[in-house]
Design goal:
alpha+beta, Immunoglobulin-like, 60s Ribosomal Protein L30, Chain: A, Serine Threonine Protein Phosphatase 5, Tetratricopeptide repeat, 3 domains, six-stranded mixed β-sheet, four-stranded antiparallel β-sheet, 17 helices
Amino acid sequence: MRTNRYILITIALLAAMIMRAQEIKVKDQTVEKSDGSLLIHMTLDFSEIKLPTNRGLVCTPVIAAGDSLRPLTPVVLNGRDRHILYERTGRNPAEHGEYELRRLNGREQAFEYAVRTPMADWMRKSEVTLVIDQCGCGWEALSNDRSPLFPINLAKPEPVVLRPVLAYAVPRVEAVKSRNLRGQAFLDFPVNRTGIYPDYRKNPRELAAIRATIDSVRQNPYASIAEVSIKGYASPEGSYANNERLAKGRAEALLNYIRSLYDFGDARMTVDYEPEDWKGLERAVAEGDLADKEALLAIIRDPAITDPDRRDARLKTVAGGEPYRHLLQEIYPALRHSDYGVNYTISSFTTEEAKELIYKNPAQLSLEEMYRVAQTYEVGSPEYNEVFEIAVRMYPDDPTSNLNAALTALAQGRTENARLYMRRAEAGSRLRLAEGVLALLEGKTDEAEGLLNVLTGDNDPSVAAAAKENLRQLQARRKAMCD
């Protein structure tokens, strides 16, 4: 704080000896806060003061706010004889915490006053006053008779609001937007038959599910079916040769049935089969709670048994055949299934087209198209953040969508959400930057500083720049906390 105007202080000097008023002028005052201390500098002009040679004045600046007072280093102003006596006594101003000078009556005389005192919060809004002691009473006796010098107004700094700077990942461009739908059908067949019986037992429901999957793609105006695939499986009971015939014949029959319902144009139609679903059997037994499941699994996993019929026969011998009866009733039926898939492509979209679809039909967009939409909004705006939240809903397992969703959550201060997304996020320096920001937001400044310092030299310029800015904010907050 600095002002060039003079502040006039009227002091009753030696009232019994000197009747006229004299003035001490104060100018060029500054007040600064540094490292927990208050620095005060001012120029005291004694040019108009006239002191008898054997008299002295003690001028004590005082910081005051209400009932709170802090006396500062006093200035002892002595006449000629008084000054000589002061020197002869050997009194050391530094040891006694004071300044001393001789008044040269009739001459201009200024003193550059500077002092450092520990900062107290009440001093932020206070004033510097002056107590004049010419009677030897001490400043305490005269503390209620203070002359104001200048105000101190050090407003408490506003807390530094963290605005994390992050580095979003740009998703790769899909040259062809390939998608697929998958399902399993558990069709019923008469014993040893391979033909499709649409009205047989639960077949109407299973076939309807297959048609619904195909229809959902055919009815999508942006989609084109590229392939329909069928893979048939049989269960291990009975001979392997017969099971191979059944798995192959039933898969082909299902594909032909589907082809009879639709015109797929140039789409590929593929069929495959697995004579016996041993992997499915192993998984079902391992996940179940059969008392003899370890014995069953040992046979299923035994590499020395290469003949499927022999392996199935061995299963029948476990615990007198009781576990095998459970397999026949509870597990084998689920191993007779037909897996089907519809592979299709989706049209590519311009940014403007994608901007319309993002809220109407986001499933049609690639991550890269969604990213382009986000770039049309201001970073950190509600619309910007919403795009990345939509992206992670559409692509919940994608590492890039999870990374960008984590960054959006961090920018909003939603640290718990960010932590969840980061578990599935794309590894690399952008994720490490996010980890540094997370630590910063959670108040773990030492951890954050360590992570961010490493990244300031990252090969990715956007990561390095973001790390430097986040470090600057960390240091600013740390300084504000000290202040």
